Amino acid sequence: MGKLQEFEITFDKNKVVYSPGESISGTVTIKVGQLLQCKAIKVNCNGFCGITSKVNDTAWTVEEQYFNSTISVADKGTLKQGEHTFPFKFLIPDSAPTSFKGNYGRIVYRVRAFIDTPRFAKDYNTEKAFYLLSLLNLNEVPDIWEACSSAVTQQFTYMLVKTGTVVLKAQTDLKGYTPGQVIQVLANIHNQSGKTTGNMAASLMQRVTYETKRPTHDVRTMVEVEGGVVKAGRELEWKEQIIVPALPQSSLAGCELIKIEYYVKVCLKSPDVMLMLPIHVGNVSLDRKLHPSKKAAPPSSAAAEDTQASASTPNTSTATTPTLPSRPAPKPAPRPTPRSRMASHNPPSAPPAEYNQGAEGGTPMNDGFPNKRQSQLVSPNAFSYAPGLFFSQNQQHNGPGTVPSGATAPYPPENGASSMPTSLILPPDYVTSAYPQEAPPSYNESFNT
Question: pTM of the entire structure?
Answer without folding.
Answer: 0.62
